[in-house]
Amino acid sequence: MAVLILGLVLFLGVHSTRIVADGWRTQMIARLGEKPWKGVYALLSIAGFVLLVWGYGLARQNPAVLWTPPVGMRHVAALLMLLAFILLVATYVPRNAIKAKLHHPMLLSVKVWALAHLLANGTLAGVVLFGAFLVWAVCCFKAARGRDRAAQAVYPPGTAAGTAITVGVGMVAWAGFAFWAHGVLIGVRPLG
């Protein structure tokens, strides 16, 4: 569990600089330069990610079960994950109505992903991992919306084509992950 927590602190800590130390972040970018800052950021992020994946894997070997979710929660989680994939894709597809309306779909995707996994997992490691990501995403979304308001950010309107592509690609990505990749990468087949 210690490795998981260390990985979360490192990974989410690096990704929280805009929330808790935006001024310091700006000063460091000015002092180091954008590319060196991104290099350090990437190295720390990768190290944190490796530690949290390794730590979660270790914790799964001897799980501390807090509760056993009802079987139906897997179906709820699957539906929430469909939404999470569509939101994730909305981050990258230009001129889609989802991004135009919600502004930060990747953070919303992380929130939905974390909630879905909290509903379907009752282990201590699951609560620590997915709970930490949920709290981080909520805080980060709030901070991002605050920056948008301060900057009076305007997002381009979405188009029907951009939105249709977003939903279609999100559904295909969800199906590929739910029926194949999750089992291969995570070792759990959520939909059989």
Question: What is the succession of H and E elements?
Answer: HHHHHHHHH
- Broad structural category: mainly alpha
**Content of β-strand:** under 5%
C-alpha end-to-end distance: 28 Å
Q: Based on CA inertia axes, which overall geometry fits?
A: globular
Biggest sheet, open or closed, and with what strands and sense? none
Radius of gyration over alpha carbons?
A: 18 Å
Number of strands: 0
Q: Average the pLDDT over all residues and give the rounded result.
A: 94
Note poorly predicted spans.
Answer: none
- Which range best describes the helical content: under 10%, 10-25%, 25-40%, 40-55%, 55-70% or over 70%? over 70%
The number of helical runs is 9
Oligomer: single chain
Keywords:
single chain, 192 residues, mainly alpha, 9 helices
3D structure, described in words:
The protein is mainly α and 192 residues long. The protein has 9 helices and no strands. Helix 1 runs parallel beside helix 8, helix 5 runs antiparallel to helix 7 and helix 5 crosses helix 9. The protein is globular. It starts with a helix and ends in a 6-residue tail after the last helix.
Layout of strands and helices, then pairs:
Elements: H1 2-14, H2 17-20, H3 22-32, H4 34-61, H5 72-90, H6 97-102, H7 105-120, H8 124-151, H9 160-186
Helix pairs in contact: 1-4, 1-8, 3-4, 5-7, 5-9, 7-8
Question: What's the gist of this structure?
Answer:
The protein has helices spanning 2-14, 17-20, 22-32, 34-61, 72-90, 97-102, 105-120, 124-151, 160-186.
